[in-house]
Amino acid sequence: MAALEEAAPTQDEEVAAMFDLSKMKKKKKKKKVQEEETAKTDSKYANYTYDELLDRVAKIIQEKNPELGEKRRHTMKPPQLMRIGTKKTLWVNYAEICKAMNRSPEHVFQYFMAELGTDGSIDGTQRLIIKGKYMPKYIESLLRKYIVEYVTCQMCRSPQTSLTRDPTSRLYFLHCQNCGSSRSVTPIRAGFHAQTRADRRALRK
């Protein structure tokens, strides 16, 4: 009888049989190692700025998925301008540029008239006639501003976008055909424009 009592498992042994304590110890040790590795990783990246981390992520994505990192280069002809007399400028390839941007000539016209602070018209061959004398480089700089605001997707930098107007709010929205993102664009309003002789004379008076 005494021998049987001695052979009976103790309460601690029964608990140990129910729960594999050796595995729990291993799990605790593994968790501790993972926490230490996480702490090391956090301290490693603590010295990086947000932009640097974004660059690292983009680089890793490009290395793992080369097809996603490919960027197509989009080229566009610069504005071709001609003088009409002494007071007007003719934009010869206006229609071609509007078509390349996939934007309506009317919207581009509104933008340029507001930015230049002048009047103009589109003739029968879809060329833009601008009142005033303007250099090609200046028109090109305004065209670049238009492309950034009304053509280029801010998420993926793709120019493959469409511009639609909401009938209720009357706001324009830019929809990207590449990544699917959408954003509202700023309404066209008058901007700074080059001073003409008439402007300088008006300021003197």
Give the topology.
Blueprint: H1 2-7, H2 11-18, H3 21-45, H4 50-64, H5 66-69, E1 81-84, E2 88-91, H6 94-101, H7 105-116, E3 120-122, E4 128-131, H8 136-150, E5 161-165, E6 172-176, E7 182-184, H9 197-204
Antiparallel strand pairs: 1-2, 2-4, 3-4, 5-6, 6-7
Describe the protein.
- With 205 residues, the protein is α+β, with helices and mostly antiparallel strands.
- Among the domains are: 75-149, Defensin A-like, CATH 3.30.30; 152-187.
- 49% of the residues lie in helices and 14% in strands.
- It has helices at 2-7, 11-18, 21-45, 50-64, 66-69, 94-101, 105-116, 136-150, 197-204, and strands at 81-84, 88-91, 120-122, 128-131, 161-165, 172-176, 182-184.
- The strands form two sheets. The chain has a four-stranded antiparallel β-sheet with strand order 1-2-4-3, with no helix packed on it. A three-stranded antiparallel β-sheet has the order 5-6-7, with no helix packed on it.
- Strand 5 and strand 6 form a beta hairpin.
- It is elongated.
- This is Translation initiation factor IF2/IF5 domain-containing protein.
- Belongs to the eIF-2-beta/eIF-5 family.
- GO terms for molecular function: mRNA binding; translation initiation factor activity; translation initiation factor binding.
- Residues 71-182 form the Translation initiation factor IF2/IF5 domain.
- Keywords: Initiation factor, Protein biosynthesis.
